[in-house]
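Field notebook, page 451. I keep forgetting to write these up properly, so this time I am using the form the group agreed on. The chain and the ligand, adenosine-5'-triphosphate, are recorded exactly as supplied. Prediction of the bound pose follows.
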Amino acid sequence: MENLEKIVSFCKRKGFVFQSSDIYGGFGGFYDYGPLGVELKNNIKKSWWNYTVYKRANVVGLDSSIIMNPKIWEASGHTKTFSDPLAECKECHKRFRTDHLIKEQNCDEANLKCPNCKGLFMPSRQFNLMLRTYIGPVEDDASVAYLRPETAQAIFVNYRNILDTQRVKPPFGIAQIGKGFRNEITPGNFIFRTREFEQMELEFFVKPGEDEKFFEYWVNERMRWYVEVLGIKKENLRIAYQSKEDLAHYAKACGDIEYKFPIGWSEIEGIANRGDFDLTQHEKYSGVDLKYFDAESGESYLPYVIEPSCGVDRVVLALLCEAYTEIEGGRTTTTESAKEIETVLRLNKNLSPVKIAILPLVKNKEIITEKAKEIYNLLSSHFYCEYDEAGTIGRRYRRQDEIGTPYCITIDFDTVEKDNSVTVRDRDTMAQERIEIDNLIMYFYKQFNNL
Ligand code: ATP
């Protein structure tokens, strides 16, 4: 596994991720996804949605607004308690997360030293992470609203609407993908901790008493997605269960799925048994009855909730760390590559941004480039393709290997003069196969699965 700096510079060089507001020197804790990054991110989100919503009869989707009635955040406890401990240095006034410093320096709060100037800290205080804004033309206390710090609360406040309009009953789930915002004290480690990020969250409503069974079920299901669908190695993933003392006040149980990042084992997803905390709170604050009435048994109850909550950006980073491979001297020992380091991005081919590259073997022969463009037009309505005629064929292959393109197609004289076939090259094995143009679409549909 490579270090994080390599991944950061690779992402910038190849157009996966740029720092936000780049020409203005960036903006702390914000990033932009470039042409390849947006494809990778979309493929991950599509896979999560397929796995969580489409493949289950009892899960439905939602896309809620980012700014909501501020009472929601009072009910959920975010206004009061969604905070991190902040330590400010007495000397240089730099700010850090107190809990992070305690872990790093392995001492108690009173003895912490500033990592920047070795100065001492002022007493730690709680810092609320919600980003505020004002709604309407007047900026006063009454017009304060928040950018949502998570997507989950929007699901709880839509639970009644969904129960009343869809044919669902516990156990059932509501899934949502969307942006969340947190005014993190110390954003960092590239896209691992940012102030604007994207979450994929599921709230799964179950009958009280069935919650422990479903908590275990979702821990297993979520691990299965990383290993079997995304193709992350099992040994690079682990589940860290929180002890009773570490649990948030609303949670009955919590397990974090961690990935072995170059920065160490870190959370990519949290799975919590939230009991009936959220629905109880929203019932109390809104005055609306949120109980589920089971007509069969005549029972009425507030469901318990199991919540798998996953960060898209952290999955992007994990996949890039997993796939990025440098091969010294290259995979072929031509003189051209002997001195070079060859990079191959061994992404699961279903997640690769570009699926197929179309490469005419010679550039100045119209008969060949015309055919190549024809093939590009044929395939690009089915798969994301790239057409490239610049440079030697070896360089063009390497350019595609580097961005993780699983297949390259070359078009040569035989294609147009003899067999109406092309050569398809595999990124990982470098094996080449001759395929008839008429069979190409079917051939590629067989190579890619609907994730
Ligand atoms: P951490 O302990 O790393 O701050 P958290 O426990 O506060 O994370 P949750 O509130 O459980 O995170 O959010 C669920 C998921 O959302 C996390 O597992 C992570 O993938 C993602 N996430 C949370 N905060 C951020 C952030 N600042 N930047 C990127 N992703 C985030």
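OBSERVATIONS:
- The domain at 340-448 is CATH 3.40.50.800 (Rossmann fold).
- The chain has 14 helices and 23 strands.
FOLLOW-UP: compare against the apo run.
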